[in-house]
Design a protein that fits this description.
The chain is of the alpha/beta class. Helix content is about 40%, strand content about 20%.
Length: about 200
């Protein structure tokens, strides 16, 4: 199944622009720049959106402007309007359970407490959409998570996240064309190599 909609998750407003929770927005910004388009606000889709060509296919880009915990409103509005099925949707989001610099692709599964995923799942009535999970790391204490995701990454973390975004962009044509197995191999093999080549303490 080809991907027809890429949703980047984040919070609207300048005060959130550089925060970890906006990693999904960052990747979609790259796609808009590469496709030489400007994402424009569409009130019926509750977000910034535009259409680009990736791997020869027309793909919608969407950044919900509803705040994270109501992201599903924007996703379901655009998906229903253009008759896009849940398994034709790729949601790009920050992931606490993955270290900065790593990225994972999966379809379905739980939401890991991520409010954006939780709301999308509720609005679509299924968890079967695709997720591109950009690692941001974990603060170590569950009580610090809300504060952690709403702060900018440290400089070295930002560099790693930027690398992961570039790696994701290189693999994205395969994901768009439905070649998710090879895409996962490329993304996840890179992760195991990093573990293998970790310098000794």
């Amino acid at each position: 199944m080809a991907i027809k909609l890429i949703v980047g998750l984040g919070n609207p407003g300048a005060e959130y622009e550089a925060t970890r929770h906006n990693a999904g927005f960052w990747l979609v910004d790259h796609l808009a720049r590469d496709g030489q388009i400007v994402l424009r606000h569409d009130s019926k889709f509750h977000g910034l959106c535009g259409r680009v060509k990736i791997a020869g296919q027309d793909v919608w880009l969407l950044q919900p402007q509803t705040f994270m915990n109501r992201s599903g409103l924007a996703v379901v509005a655009l998906a229903q309007f253009y008759k896009i099925l849940p398994d034709e949707i790729l949601v790009v989001h920050d992931e606490l359970d993955i270290a900065p610099g790593l990225v994972k692709l999966k379809q379905g599964g739980g939401n890991g407490g991520h409010n954006g995923l939780k709301d999308i799942q509720a609005h679509l009535s299924t968890p079967s959409f695709w997720r591109l999970r950009l690692g941001i790391g974990h603060p170590g204490n569950k009580n610090e998570v809300a504060n952690f995701v709403l702060k900018p990454p440290r400089k070295e973390e930002q560099e790693l996240i930027d690398d992961a975004i570039l790696k994701s962009l290189a693999v994205l044509p395969k994901i768009i064309q439905g070649q998710t197995g090879p895409a996962m191999s490329l993304l996840h093999t890179d992760e195991s190599k990093k573990r293998e080549h970790k310098p000794a303490p």
